[in-house]
């Protein structure tokens, strides 16, 4: 077996990555774990750029921690999960901003430019695919049924949209790390929007409103290389993420037309992994809601027995990759 390493970039608290690392170890695949927050206190980088015989520049060198030495030219795959951001807590604010930017473009740039390895997924591709308007545009173009959507900062347009399409929901484009006044973590779920509540505060930033899908269930389809795992989620919740304790899971098949559309969607964004969310209507129609290029999946394996960790490790080993 090749001794080329798999590099897992994530935080120490990532239990999903723990399962993948355990399976890689069971298969005898060398694996190393690095968190962006480990740099520079616990990780050092020395990377040289050289011109290879084919005139392509490649980075060679090492990442070193207290327990590992990673040869940058010997990485077979990068599993980019959920690293903590760079932080330099002992620096003054201006120095910290400068240091973080240099780390992002230097340390992070090297990790994003390794030669001859598979990224699951590449961090730049994740960033591109995380933009909701781009998701909706590509989803419609590849043939998904996409609910009528309005992106606006005009309250009159929002009221007009609601009058035209009927019941609507509000969706955040992305939720930053928020805390209450008591420093409790907060999040924001999809919620039904009442146009009588619309006021001039809509004009303060961009908002996304979408026609409410009259659904009977949600569907999460996790695409891992050539493997597709579809699970129906029954919960009676508008946003199933609000309460996992009420879920009922059923493993289902994915219609072939939608399989082709998903593969084309991932190809457009340069992804090999994607967690697709659909709303299932009573007539059997699947409506595209979003695709997370770095979505969670381990809880579904635990709940259904689907071999998702094995599929992910197959992908990192470059087995059965479509």
What this model shows, in words?
It is globular, with a radius of gyration of 22 Å. The two termini are 22 Å apart. It has helices at residues 15-26, 93-105, 107-111, 123-129, 132-142, 155-165, 256-269, 298-304, 308-316, and strands at 5-9, 31-34, 44-51, 57-64, 69-71, 75-80, 118-120, 149-152, 168-171, 178-179, 185-186, 191-193, 207-211, 215-224, 227-234, 248-252, 273-281, 286-292. The chain is of the alpha+beta class. The strands form five sheets. A five-stranded antiparallel sheet has the order 16-15-14-17-18, sandwiched between helices.
Terminal residue distance? 22 Å
Give the topology string: H per helix, E per strand: EHEEEEEHHEHHEHEEEEEEEEHEEHH
Task: Report strand order across the widest sheet.
Answer: 16-15-14-17-18
Question: How would you classify the helix and strand content by structural class?
Answer: alpha+beta
What helical percentage do the residues reach?
25-40%
Principal-axis shape: globular
Largest sheet properties: 5 strands, antiparallel
Spatial extent as radius of gyration: 22 Å
Number of helices: 9
Number of strands: 18
Poorly predicted segments: none
């Amino acid at each position: 077996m090749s001794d080329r390493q798999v590099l897992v970039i994530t935080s120490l608290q990532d239990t999903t990555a723990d399962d993948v690392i355990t399976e890689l170890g069971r298969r005898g695949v060398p694996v190393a774990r690095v968190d962006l927050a480990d740099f520079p206190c616990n990780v050092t980088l020395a990377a040289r750029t050289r011109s290879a015989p084919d005139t392509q520049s490649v980075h060679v060198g090492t990442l070193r921690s207290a327990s590992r030495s990673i040869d940058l030219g010997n990485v077979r795959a990068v599993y980019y999960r959920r690293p903590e951001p760079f932080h330099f807590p002992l620096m003054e604010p201006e120095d910290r901003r400068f240091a973080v930017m240099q780390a992002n473009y230097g340390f992070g740039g090297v990790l994003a430019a390794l030669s001859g390895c598979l990224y699951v997924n590449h961090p730049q591709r994740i960033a591109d695919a995380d933009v909701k308007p781009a998701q909706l545009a590509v989803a419609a173009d590849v043939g998904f049924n996409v609910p009528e959507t309005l992106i606006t900062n005009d309250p009159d347009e929002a009221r007009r949209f609601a009058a035209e399409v009927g019941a609507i929901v509000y969706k955040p484009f992305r939720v930053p790390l928020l805390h209450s006044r008591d420093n409790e973590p907060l999040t924001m779920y999809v919620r039904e929007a009442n146009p009588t509540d619309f006021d001039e505060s809509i004009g303060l930033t961009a908002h996304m409103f979408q026609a409410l899908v009259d659904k009977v269930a949600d569907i999460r389809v996790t695409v891992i290389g050539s493997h597709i795992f579809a699970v129906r989620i029954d919960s009676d919740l508008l946003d199933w993420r609000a309460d996992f304790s009420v879920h009922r899971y059923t493993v289902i098949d994915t219609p072939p037309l939608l399989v082709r559309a998903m593969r084309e969607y991932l190809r457009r964004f340069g992804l090999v992994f994607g967690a697709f969310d659909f709303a299932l209507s009573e007539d059997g129609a699947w409506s595209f809601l979003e695709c997370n290029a770095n979505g969670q999946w381990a809880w579904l394996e635990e709940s259904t027995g689907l071999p998702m960790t094995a599929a992910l490790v197959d992908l990192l080993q470059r087995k059965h990759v479509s």
